[in-house]
Amino acid sequence: MHYGYIGVVIGTFFEGEVTVLLGGIFSKLEFLSLNKVILYACTGTFLGDCTFFFLGRLFGRTLIDRYQIMRSRTCFADKVIHRYGHLILFTMRFLAGFRTMVLLLLGCTHMNIVRFLVIDFLMAALWAGLLSLLGYSFGNVVYVFVTDVTRYQKLVVPVVVVGAVAVILLYRYFVRRKEGERRYGS
User: Which residue of 11, 15, 17, 174 lies most exposed, with the fewest beta carbons within 10 A?
Assistant: First the structure.
């Protein structure tokens, strides 16, 4: 199951909340080791954070210099990040979809690199641990759900198939009816 750990690293490199939760669930179901999921999730997210931070550090200034609205707010952003940088690093960890953008912007500011690395590593470890444990704790729920579904699959599968076919036929009926009204001007 080595591919599961590779998936955790790749998934957490970019965002990864779902990846870590699934890693925790698979740990509970004994497909993966919880300790390794936490380790690889921390590694992947930390490497991703560093990548986007340093991309912002290297290329972000050209974007800021290109747009007046960004240049005018850079001084204020630097002050806020200098004062609340650790809080921003903690908060962005739990805002799915914003992590990459926040890290690029943090890289554009004058945030101390060592401070960033230390705080981000601690936050990445906390995040990986919390989400892995959350997934692990819900592993039993998934197991019970899957075993219940297999017990009723002879009933559930035909009902779902018949329901899907009925929805498709109803859709086609209403589309054709609407097309007929347009053609004949009703």
Answer: 174
